[in-house]
Amino acid sequence: MVERSFEDIQWLAKLEPYAAIYDEGHKLKNPGTMVYKNLSQLPSEWRLVLTGTPVQNNLKELLSLLSFVEPTLFEGNIMQDMHTIFEAKVPNKDVLNFAALAKERVTNARTIMVPFILQRQKDEVLDLPKKIDTLIQVPMDDNQRTLYEGIKTSFLQKSKGKANASKDKGNAWQQLRKAAIHPHLFRRHFTDSTIDKMVDILWAKCSPEELYVQSKEDRHRIKYRDQLRSESDFDLHLLCKQLPRYIGKFDLPHRSWEKAPKVQKLLELVKGYQENGDRCLVFSRYDMVMDVLRDTLHFADINYCDLSGRLSVADRFPEIERFNDNPEIPVFLLTTGAGGTGLNLTAANKIIIFDQSDNPQDDVQASNRAHRIGQTREVEVIRLITENTVEGLIYNSCVKKLMLAASVEGRVEDEESVEEECRRRMLLGEDEDINVVSIAPSQMALN
């Protein structure tokens, strides 16, 4: 798909193509983006969109693709009316109404899809080993619970009585997600006083080049201090590792990051896999979590490969080859974004989702890096969920998206099973109202 510049579109338009075929069609899910607007201007008599994920978050994304393919059919009031059909909401806890409305919306969606979509499932064209899902709920320890509850209480106190607390709510949600993952993602060990002492020492003994500052003027010193104050405990731990002669004494207690319950569970799983000859991919959404896991595996004397958004494209393929060709390496760490598409890692048969995405399709695509042609073993996807936290709410929402997707795609013979599956898997509490047709197909493809 050409999308980089308007000049590209102008050049293609001069060709006056009869047919235009667009790969990675999910990039056209939002009509408000420049990609959508630019490509819509490319004239052609016939359009085909290829995508494995025509809907990632809601049915309006599907309508956007259909409007792109048939702009004269899906336009104006017709498009607005169709959007309205799929915007009804229902309380998540009201499972009966949720299921009833889901059936109605699913029927409408399938009716719209049928004339325009050619679809095939992976199991229709490939004979792959089974893929199974395992959910592991991890309890918080006292330290983590204190942190989590403190953030929760602080948000409730700040937002009480506010007419519009949506911005605070979004920030609190992210802070709670971090607290559910690992306490070292916050700054608690390194107090302001400790940081001031560290800056005094570094300013006296290090060159500007070592500190990545322009000079030792007071204004740069203040900026450097403020920067350190904005870092997490683990970020500052990494700085202490880089300059141990000067500030090593201020560091976190050695291997204290391994005490976090999720990290302990990860180590337990990996050590078990080593004994069994299994190999695993570990996915996280956050580079800062990857930093924690790198040190964890290093000090546990566990070999690993590593692929994150920080790694250049040129360096990625050698790292993939190193993992695939070396069975003595049991773990491959990947950020979900960097490892979500285009990778073949069938040397692994276990996938650990250390922290999940809001969009379940991201995690499905990530897990499929091991469940593809060349895989000879059963693949297990393990999701680590911290008990009684926002992670449970995210999980509930993702389950519903995937189950509704299965129904929309026609992969559920009895639509009653949508309600049954939601009931069976809604184990972790109640979340907010959600769009009952907010779906993300797990294996849809156009052919």
From TrEMBL:
Key word Ubl conjugation present: no
Record keywords: ATP-binding, Hydrolase, Nucleotide-binding
Molecular function via GO: ATP binding; hydrolase activity
UniProt cross-references to InterPro entries, sorted A to Z: Helicase_ATP-bd (IPR014001), Helicase_C-like (IPR001650), P-loop_NTPase (IPR027417), SNF2-like_sf (IPR038718), SNF2/RAD54-like_C (IPR049730), SNF2_N (IPR000330)
Annotated Helicase ATP-binding domain residues: 1-72
PROSITE patterns: HELICASE_ATP_BIND_1 (PS51192), HELICASE_CTER (PS51194)
Residues covered by the Helicase C-terminal domain: 262-447
Highest taxon of the lineage: Eukaryota
One Pfam match: SNF2-rel_dom
Gene3D superfamilies: P-loop containing nucleotide triphosphate hydrolases, Tandem AAA-ATPase domain
Keyword ATP-binding: yes
UniProt-listed PANTHER family: SNF2/RAD54 HELICASE FAMILY
Name assigned to this protein: Uncharacterized protein
Record organism: Neoarthrinium moseri
